[in-house]
Amino acid sequence: MIVITGAAGFIGSALAWELNRRGNSDLLLVDDLGTGEKWKNLVPLRYSDYLEKDDFIQGVLESRFDSLGIKAIIHMGACSATTEKDASFLIRNNFEYSKKLVEWCDKNHVRLIYASSAATYGDGARGYSDDEAEIEGLRPLNMYGYSKQMFDIWLKQKGWLKNCVGLKYFNVFGPNEYHKEDMRSMVAKAYAQITDEGKIRLFKSHHPDYRDGEQMRDFIYIKDAVAMTLHFLETGVPGGLYNIGTGQARTWIDVAHALFAALGVKPKIEFIPMPEVLQGKYQYFTEADMRKFHSTGHKGTQFTLEAAVKDYAEYLKAGSQVLGFN
Predict the structure, then answer these.
(1) What integer pLDDT is reported at residue 44 of this predicted model?
(2) How many helices (H) and strands (E) does the chain have?
(3) Which residues contact 58 (CB under 8 A, 6 or more apart)?
(4) Annotated catalytic residue: which of 47, 128, 144, 221?
(5) 8 Å CB contact between 187 and 202
């Protein structure tokens, strides 16, 4: 059995979808469904059981899962909002919960694969190397990134990082993200803008080294991110921190033009002021150092940015934003 936390979320549900495609339905899915719409990501999936996150962690603390034969826990459950201001909530949800989980994994010799984040790199002044020796020197720009940083460092201090796999996801986009509302990717938001207004709005730059729309990110398609994640489930790759990205930064204008091309629409871009809440916490450049990941024997991404946007646009045009729903 494989446990996936955050299983109704973006990456978690896509992982379950791909495991189903590979013939594995012996899954225990864990999430906190609340009153939102992410439950729809569960509908096409095949799994053994579902538990709410509080029930699951209580079962962990009571050792109720010790004899289930759990092969691995893929821990994607977290608050991923970079604008979340409740630091105490992030500590409870992203740090303390994860600590309880890894303690159980260590006791039961279960592999833990968890979501760290590229947000731990802050403004990138110290680079984007996933070398564990350098993590204490990173300076996240928001509390979300710091909550992930805290767990990475805690694992290292405990000596457990070598037995866990922490994945630093860069800008992941694709189907199954619709429920994230304002935290959806620019592709999802821009599709609606093109449909409604025939244009895309991008943030102006507030950095002298970057012109409007030429801020750069490492954009990775969900199908690539999933395949790269499962590489650590299916192989004996040593534990540690690993970047999950393409290794090639692209501009927001590149993304916009890829979407216009996918939809057959003449490009029209409007630049708007960046919200004050993001100014000072905005990453103007991210690019994953993929050397360590490639050293594990995986070739990396299969989709170019243009091919990924085109594939995603097909889901959006069909009115289906959930992998496996059709």
Answers:
(1) 96
(2) 10, 13
(3) none
(4) 144
(5) no
Tokens 């609340």 belong to 34
Can 180 be counted among the known catalytic residues?
yes
144 is catalytic: yes
Mean pLDDT score of the chain, rounded to an integer?
A: 94
Note the pLDDT tens digit of each residue in 275-324. 887 777 788 999 999 999 999 999 899 999 999 999 999 999 988 789 98
* pTM, full prediction: 0.94
Contact 4, 15 (CB under 8 A): yes
Return the residue matching tokens 């350098």.
134
Q: Helix, strand or coil for residue 308?
A: helix
Q: Where are the extended beta strands (E) located within the chain? A: 2-5, 27-31, 49-52, 72-75, 111-115, 164-169, 171-173, 200-203, 216-217, 219-221, 240-244, 250-251, 269-272
- Residue-wise pLDDT for 210-244, tens only, equals 999 999 999 999 999 999 999 999 998 999 999 99
| Selected catalytic residue, list 40, 99, 180, 292 | 180
Instruction: State the CB neighbour count (10 A cutoff) for residue 250.
Output: 18
